[in-house]
From TrEMBL:
Pfam family, one: Glyco_hydro_42M
GO cellular component terms, A-Z: beta-galactosidase complex
Keyword annotations of the record: Glycosidase, Hydrolase, Metal-binding, Zinc
Protein's UniProt name: Beta-galactosidase
Example of a GO MF term: metal ion binding
CDD domains in alphabetical order: A4_beta-galactosidase_middle_domain
GO biological process: carbohydrate metabolic process
InterPro entries per the UniProt record, alphabetical: Beta_galactosidase_Trimer, Class_I_gatase-like, GH, Glyco_hydro_42, Glyco_hydro_42_N
Protein origin, superkingdom: Bacteria
Amino acid sequence: MTKKLYHGAAYYPELWDEKVIEEDIKLMKEAGINVARIGEFAWHTMEPEEGKIDISFFVNIINKLYENGIETVMCTPTPTPPIWFTHNHPERMYVNQNGETMGHGSRQHACTNHPYFRQKANEITEHIAKAIGHLPGLIGWQIDNEFKCHVSECMCKTCQGLWHEWLENRYETVENLNEAWGTKIWSEYYHSFEQVPQPHPAPFLHNSSLSTKYRQFSMEKIAEFSDSQAEIIRKYSSEPITHNSNIPFAVDNERLFENLDFASFDTYATQENKASYLMNCDLWRNFKKGKDFWIMETSTSYAASLESYASPHANGYLKAEAVAAYALGAEAFCYWLWRQQRAGCEQPHGSVISAWGEPTVGFQGVLEVEEMRKKIEPIMISTRPLQAEVALTYSDQAKAYFQTEPHQQMDFRGLVTNFYHHFVSLGIHRDVLPESAHLEGYKVLFTPFLPHISDEYRERAVEFVKNGGTWIVGPISGGRTGEHTIHTDAALGKLEEVSGVKALYTYPLDGTGSKGTAFGESAPLGLWSTVFENDETTVGTIKGGNSEGKAFLTESKLGNGKIVHLGSLPIGEEGDILLKKIIDHYVTSADVTVRTNVSNGTIVAPRVGENSTQTWVIVNMDGQGGQVDLPAEAIDEFSRESVSAGKFEVGPYEYRVITFK
Ligand code: GAL
């Protein structure tokens, strides 16, 4: 890929005739679309009959787009196996948790572990890679589409066999499994791996170990499928490979991207969910550190299907979203979709062009994005996102633990997003890091909502602390083993040994009238909590409830740094104030400097140039306009005029780019 900023759209030329395709290409050029993503649902067009594969339609499209200055990301079409694959073959289909077998007619209906699926998927991908891999217009690949977005763990017979194999590889003997899972409970005891069930319908809940391991098994299998597809493509093409993923899907994104070349995600966050949009950018930047990510899909205005629709973006918001993404490390900002579908189940979905070939309500926004893209491109190319000093761990493994044990319908994504939001409103530049990311260059690490802290993670964090870092652990972190069981040495296992704290009880503080006080603020505490002994490590104490006088916040010195246990979540409005106070306290005392005094609704994305000069992209995202304090004199990148230190204003949805001297 040559270095540029991409502005793209998902395109389905197989659904339209030649005249419409001509018109589309003309309109794409007018709208400033420089990359199209194609092919992800077109298996039938490529292989209308089993074994009769012809990719020439897509070869022509890619060439035609290229002649018109539009490059292509080619997808493999494996989410939609055609009718010849599915008809009369229930054994090849996905089986859901209720034991229902999926039929033909939507997508993700096949079991991606079925050997015949794998065989046919490999074949089609090999044909595509051969036919397309060398085309000059091709700049990248996308494997499949949104793995596990509609489905999660498959319960078919194929998966059952693979599950048993997986368990055997992992535990070696069934006795090891019995011991690890504590299967004497409720007479679950197994005499062979073949007896271990899938988490199929049962009168009450399954053993937590079984449920979580099945999720891990499934996440591993889909990543293996992606690996094998990537391997085939690499035989014929040197263009980089990605997958368009997202946080809520039943995948382990960190594992998935391990063998891919760049990270990309899809987002349909509405304007109210700006925090989730920004968190995605801060996370996806870190799946392939140092490499730009792609926003592979977003709507120009609103998402919709036959059954629902979201609120359209306000005029001006799309540009704010796009500039924030580019500034936070995106190389591409792409829409789903170019031309509104005329058929199928997503006809109402927002697009760039309507089914009848005219601009949609989102079109003006697309033009604004393009105008902005051209303006910022040279600056984005000559600078990189600045590594933050504050890191927040995000883990899809934790997501799996929460799916097995949601306590009270808690979902990991929601919990982390709310926690994350405080960093944005405190103007703290942050990286959201996958679990095994290195911690060099960070000053503060937050590990909330990670039920299982692996030895590897703990050791890395302890190293970080010994070297002077501050590690804030909790809430709900560390209380479960790698088998999703309870520690039997101490409530938080080895963690207590390293921090020297004594956890007394773990129980929910909601509704108990417990209030936490720390740093002069006080608020109700909630969620599943860990209560600590009140001793020399205590920083925050509990008033009221069952644990009057005990601690919910502790601090222990270790090497040159400290470990902080946050045992409970401050809740409600007062809770937000207290939590912010706690975050602010540790970020301030760790001398975090990459931080801005910015008004709510406006963000600063700091970037760094070759000679270490800092460039700030300041974006108002709430349409209210805002301001930020500039710590020093700077240059406005567009007017080239000098701007003085002090208050700096941005208008509604406006963006400004300034570089410090
Ligand atoms: C994504 C999917 C697209 C389209 C879009 C609609 O999840 O990848 O194919 O369905 O949602 O918002």
